[in-house]
Amino acid sequence: MSDASTTLKKFENQYVPLVNQTLQQLNAGWIDQSILQSAMTYSVNAGGKRLRPLLSLAVLRTYQDQPTKGQLMAASALELLHTYSLIHDDLPAMDNDELRRGVPTNHMKFGAGMATLAGDGLLTLAFEWLSKADIPATQQLALVRALSHAAGPAGMVAGQAQDISSEHHQLNIDQLAALHRHKTGALLHYAVEAGCIMAEVKDEEQECLLKFADQFGLAYQIYDDLLDVTATAEELGKKTHKDAGEEKNTYPGLFGVAGTKQRLKQVVESAESQLTDLSCTNGRDYSLLNAFCSYFKIKE
Q1: Which of 134, 147, 215, 240 could form a disulfide with 271 if both were Cys (CB 3.0 to 4.6 A apart)?
Q2: What pLDDT is attached to residue 200?
Q3: Beta pairing partners, 104
């Protein structure tokens, strides 16, 4: 295991339990209907890497000591919203997936109607958590503004709409990059932005960190596309080879597997270079954020 992988694993072992503990607050009176609560907690507790809150926390750890409980709550709010997006993505009217993380998707367990409402509940609850997290009010407002933009019709939802409208129509590389910048990259951009807001990072440093976030987000989607054609259903916990069957726009569909691996390497190197350049400028250690790039395992 590389030094970066070891760093990331150590960080995950320390902070994933704290994020999961924070998410257990869902059982503390936030939801006022028993079946809805079961549906919402079912998907939140179905596992996952907690990548997005971890990115926020990694920025915080780079600039300060241990995150406060208020910062943990604000970071974990993003996981609520991310889970909503997965529930809705899996619905019959969207991707129509039966498995997510190796277990039945929300609508397979609770029906499409309740799954839709579970997603609605998680989406709106994310903003309530931001507004009630024990952080300065100016930061609460900045986070609400940033997340509503990232998740809304100028961000993730725009990407999802473009994905649906582009089925059976081949996009070029610039169009595909724009689609993924919205659909996948917007929430990863916000994850880093949220850490910057709470850590009060200087504007010029934040600009570099957000460039890192954007390249990381692009790499994440390229890697996801690659796994869909190279990994097994058991490894991913969901069906594979779905994108090609549904004529969705993907990097392997545009470049082939070998070309996609090369593109992934280039984007990961670009993400890493943003942190290297920033460290050379201010002398700060960004090895924790850089370690997130070890997530991408490129097999030759």
Answers
A1: 215
A2: 97
A3: 99
